[in-house]
Amino acid sequence: MTKWGMVIDLDKCTGCQACTTACAMENNTLPGENWQDVLYYSEGSYPTAKLTWLPRPCMQCENPSCVAVCPTRATYKDMDAGGIVFVDWNKCIGCKYCMIACPYGVRFYADEKPVVEPDVRDVFPGTGQLHAPPYQGPHDDAVRGIGIQPKGVVSKCTFCYHKVSQAPAGVADLDEDNPETKEFTPACVRTCPPKARYFGDLDNPESEVNRLIADQRGVRLKDHTGNRPQVYYLGSGADVPAYQPPKKS
Amino acid sequence: MNESAEIDLRQKLSLDAMACLTIRRPDATCIACADACPAQVIAIDTRVIELDHDRCTGCARCVAACPTGAMALPTSLAQADHALTLECSRVAQADRQGDTQTIPCLGGVTASRLLEHLVGHAQVTVVDRGWCADCPSGGCAQPWADAVQSAQADLADLGHDAGAVQVISVPTPLPHAHPAPQPRRPKQHGYSRRQLFQRLTTPAPAPDRSRVSADQPFSGKVDAPALAHRRDALRALHGTDSLPAALFPALDCTGTPDMRLAASLCPTHALSLAETPDADALVFDAALCLACGDCTKAGAIRLHAQGQGRYSGPVTLASRNMADCPRCLRRFAPRDGQQICDGCHKDNDLAASAFGLMRRAQVPYGA
After folding, report:
1. Measured between alpha carbons, how far is B39 from B34 in angstroms, rounded to an integer?
2. Does A240 or B263 have the greater pLDDT score?
């Protein structure tokens, strides 16, 4: 079974936020909701201050803590869709429990409607049953949290499921440089200028993502929470922490 | 006979959607106007109120019943001068008690109207003619009872003589009265032969109805002109801005409530959140409180039917220090010494743990 995973190489990432912009445009996110963000992190103080950055999509955890806390079962992990965690906008009541439960802070809730942009539905009013009115993408799916977000629900990264799901079955990697898989690659991966992101099937032993994780010792963030993300990070020195036997007392 | 035309039914009942609880608030269950109406003029649907002007008799009892003062009937406001005696307009001129003001129905008078009449007068009298139970506008023996009792209670709280509003009973035989106000187009049950053929040749007049709904429901607070009116009437009567707090409901805090939630649960402007750069304050204006108790859902707030001490304007119920997060610029309530908001702290923590992993010394394979 497919298990979609992402690999982000922190040595290549330049912190340009192109992925953030591409994601916002691809998914019509509300202002303030960055399903994909690059966190800027500064440490130290004046003579030795250092600024670094960390791209952060939803980790699509294997054991997501957000799913466990949802009172309406609106958020769920779909094993048939490559193990992606979705929010069912028809069920979500906006209680924000999942936002607190998520250790990675990748779930979003916007109280307000967009203030700058006009409502597309007013600009292009559809009459009757149009096949695909401009505001309604052909892959709109409220059950998976894809499309124009209604008010009062939590939203999150879908790994661009509307693109990924169109990929041919059994494909190992979705690579923007491969013309056959280019269209099915998630927006952030496809747009990354230094090609710091890789996307593929973690269950396929032949996939590029598996090779990268093995060769360059990919790590998952906050593994101690037991969430087991499907997003791996590479970087010089990245490594699975060494096993330390518990101290005998 | 023609004197009863004082009730001008062309003056239609109107409803201010912005002041109506049922239209504006998703959680409101107020049906006071429909309950008070003796002619079933008002139909309440989900956030829509339908007024059937054909059946309205112009009694204005809905105007008196509305807790926020959303209903208005122009005839009920017609007021030549502040008369001392209120009479039903069905009373013939010969039977009236001297200097009187006639209103379409004595049930259409509100307590604050009675108090307003008292300013500059020693006494206001409502004349009970004993026929209200049989009147199509009345429907009950004493339609004014609520307003009179409420006005008397207010006077007692103010320390004035509660007898200043009194009801006198002057039973008058019904044949002396003008005919009862009739709806313009009463509901018909069946037709006479002539009417039937008339209906066939001339089209039936369109029913005169209006549906009132708000363009944008749930948008903020409901105006409550009736409550502000009552406060102003009490102040005018008492002569000072400082009133006994027993006239109004009161709230007290047992801890720190969720102030934003409490302010947004309040349907009127009674509870509001005052934001200053350093602190948020929950401000309470007792005079605008409907005593609905919605704010108690925010926790740590208790509602009392009557306050203690004096009321002279809005007071601060609770306050909390606030700060702007220097990173995301959102306002948050800092716990002791907290510099950035919880969300930014989570982001920082994640990045710190990520770079901690990246910088650790590599473990050789097979270790």
Report:
1. 9
2. B263
B350 contacts on A by Cβ (under 8 Å): 39, 54, 56, 103-105, 221-222
Nearest to B313 by CA among B284, B275, B293: B284
Q: Are A240 and A228 in contact (CB under 8 A)?
A: no
Radius of gyration, CA atoms only, chain B:
29
First to last CA, chain A: 44
| Contacts of residue A145, Cβ cutoff 8 Å, sequence gap at least 6 | A86, A87, A88, A89, A153, A155, A156, A158
Euclidean distance between CA atoms B336 and B319, whole angstroms: 16
| A interface test, pick of B216, B342, B347, B365 with most A CB neighbours within 10 Å | B347
Residue for token pair 């922490």: A241
State the best of B325, B339, B357, B362 to mutate against chain A, taking most chain A CBs within 10 Å. B357
Contact B358 A242 (CB under 8 A): no
Q: Which of A41, A217, A240 sits opposite B355 (nearest CB)?
A: A41
Q: Say yes or no for a CB contact (<8 Å) between B360 and A236.
A: no
Q: What is the pLDDT of residues B277-331, one digit of tens each?
A: 888 899 999 999 999 888 888 888 999 999 899 998 999 999 888 888 888 888 8
Candidate from A39, A219, A238 with C-beta closest to B351? A39
CATH topology for the A4-120+136-234 domain: Alpha-Beta Plaits (3.30.70)
pLDDT at B4 over 80: no
From the list B350, B358, B361, the residue facing A235 with the nearest CB is B358
- Rounded CA-CA distance A61/A156 in Å is 13
Segments making up each domain of chain B, as ranges = 2-181+208-212, 240-321, 324-359
In angstroms, rounded to a whole number, what is the distance separating the alpha carbons of residues A54 and A52?
7
**Does the beta-carbon distance from B346 to A105 stay under 8 Å?**
yes
Q: Are A35 and A23 within 8 A, CB to CB?
A: yes
The whole-angstrom separation of Cα A29 and Cα A148 is 8
Q: How far is CA B61 from CA A97, B143, B346, in A?
A: 47, 8, 58
pTM for this one? 0.63
User: Which tens digit of pLDDT belongs to each residue from B141-192?
Assistant: 888 888 999 999 999 988 888 888 888 888 888 777 788 777 777 666 777 8
- Domain boundaries of chain A, sorted by first residue: 4-120+136-234
Give per-10-residue mean pLDDT for chain A (249 aa).
Answer: 94 93 89 90 83 93 93 92 93 86 92 59 66 60 86 90 92 93 94 95 94 91 92 80 71
* Length of chain A measured in residues: 249
By C-alpha distance, the chain B residue nearest A37 is: B347
Cα-to-chain-centroid distance, residue B150: 15
pLDDT at residue B345 is higher than 50: yes
Write phi, then psi, for B5 (nearest 5 degrees).
-70, 0
